[in-house]
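ok here's Oxidireductase, ferredoxin domain protein, seq below lol
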Amino acid sequence: MDRINWASAPWSDAEPLECAMVVPETADTATITFRAPSGAWFDYLPGQFLTLDLPVPGQPVSRTYTISSSPSRPLSLSVTVKAQPGSVGSRWLIEQLKPGMRLRAHGPAGEFSLRRHPARKYLLISAGSGITPMMSMTTWAWDSGEMPDIVFVHAARRPSDIIFRPRLEQFAARVPGLQLRFTVEEVEPFSVWHGFRGRLNQIMLGLMAPDYLEREVFCCGPEPFMRGVKDSLAALGFDMNRYHQESFGPPETAPEALPEASEAAEIRFTASGVSTACAPGETVLAAAKRAGLNIPSGCNFGLCGTCKVKKTAGEVQMLHNGGISEDDIAAGYILACCSRPSGKVAVEI
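and the structure came out like this:
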């Protein structure tokens, strides 16, 4: 029987991922488990994300998904996908991806992880598919062998929409340090619901976690939901330095907040030998696509970090949303999706 060589290097995105199984979670959500064809193990932080290149017929796309599995179980890696109305990539994953098929991936990446913010007590707050990084972090805590102190708050439309509910309840039934607090907007007919009902608010939060002021808070969900949680905690006197959030959508940015690019902007893609003039406000990513060059990208608003490239000359105006570290910026890297050239710029593409 082959044994895993834990001394060998872990999986890297130079190798594709192979689909091992697709497991339904709710009516419109599925967990997709991948393995490394080489048998390599996976190393990442609980809460990080991955960008997948999806061969959607006629329009290949890249999409970013939080890893819902935990690095404490390193033989496979899972993402949990919710097929939103009108979605292309997520719908393709759920309906077309089959075991044995392989995809290119980029990452893992991301700063949203309890491993980066050690604390004695945690408060995890999520809504909808925002539960995925919380599941990864909760599984990590469960597997750590230490008694966790986690209050896990999740909001959903209906009880049947709560992703991972059976697994979380199994965890909580065996570990008193994990407290589950679910709230739903409506209850299915002919069913009994013993949890909270209604949208999460200050009063409900105080009942769910009376000691919230003592906890490190992680929040993930739709932008309006996270804004409401953040405003509620701030109004309650919470130390916002202990508040961390992850987003699945672009932040609400006023158009006038974006700086204008120079009309004389020009980009030279050094590895490709291609140069192109840039229209005012055009990003490096958009210019590259127009020039027939491919820069892998995911979120397209400076969060996932997939489009990170090395700038070798010139200046850009970059308004990112946490997808790049200060060390990378100091080393000359930029995010192509949210960088606008100022004058002549050279990029290693």
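fwiw The mean pLDDT is 90. kinda neat tbh
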